[in-house]
Design a protein that fits this description.
By secondary structure, this protein is of the alpha/beta class. It is built from ten helices and nine strands. The strands form two sheets. The protein has a six-stranded parallel β-sheet, sandwiched between helices. A three-stranded antiparallel β-sheet has the order 5-4-6.
Length: 239
């Protein structure tokens, strides 16, 4: 049986599904994956140093300039969910219990209508004042070159988990991975700790859908190397 057919069968049989998604699921929506070949990691910009707690606290103005470039704030309102996001919502609508554990900060799973989402790396859509904790939405972040608090003038901190920061919802994510009868990783290189450890905690079947091979392919029962949208379109056609 072809791996795509195996994936379709596993999805059909599963009742409780834990889904780990990475940047690869959002590339079809036009959002670049800066970890892939040709992305920012291949260029001179030191992404991990800039998107760090240290850099934000030492150079908050410069941080925001780079942050807006890296996350394409000029086009942020244009991005829409693609078939990958919508397919996961359809699984939920079909009566399956689906928990999405996402490394992405783009909010497209929520925009697609999925209800149970663990944003382990936070969200790009909000920021807060480090002094008074007031939360500001995307409109404010886009409209100001260097977003500041309207109450005390402090430069805001984005609600994205920066390097050196603490991943969110981690305990819940590992619990969902262990309880699911299917663990599905989509569009992730499985390089970022501790999220990369989630498949090891799965007691059910494990499936991976990613364009390129990962170092952890051997952990999975089903491995599909291919385009996410095309693969899910093929899965839909087989049902």
């Amino acid at each position: 049986m072809h791996p795509t057919e195996q994936l379709a069968e596993a999805l059909k049989q599963a009742e409780r599904i834990a889904v780990l998604t990475g940047a690869g699921i959002s590339t079809a929506s036009g959002i670049p994956d800066f970890r892939s070949r040709g992305g920012l990691y291949d260029q001179e910009l030191d992404v991990e140093a800039i998107l760090s707690e240290t850099y934000y606290h030492r150079h908050p103005k410069s941080f925001w300039t780079h942050f807006k470039t890296i996350f394409h704030f000029h086009a942020i309102k244009q991005y829409e969910p693609n078939l990958g996001h919508l397919f996961l919502r359809e699984l939920e609508q079909a009566g399956k219990e689906v928990t999405i554990i996402t490394q992405n900060v783009d909010g497209l799973h929520s925009k697609a209508g999925s209800r149970r989402i663990l944003d382990v790396h936070g969200s790009i859509h909000t920021a807060h004042c480090p002094k008074c904790r007031t939360v500001y939405g995307l409109e404010h972040l886009v409209s100001e070159e260097i977003p500041r608090c309207g109450k005390d003038g402090f430069i805001l901190k984005p609600d994205v988990v920066l390097f050196e920061g603490m991943v969110k919802h981690l305990e819940e994510a590992f619990e969902e991975a262990s309880k699911a009868d299917l663990f599905l990783a989509i569009g992730t290189s499985l390089k970022v700790y501790p999220v990369k450890e989630l498949p090891r905690y799965s007691k059910g079947r494990r499936a991976l859908l990613n364009r390129e091979a990962t170092e952890l392919d051997g952990l999975f029962d089903i491995v599909v190397h291919g385009d996410i949208v095309e693969t899910f379109r093929a899965v839909q056609a087989s049902w």
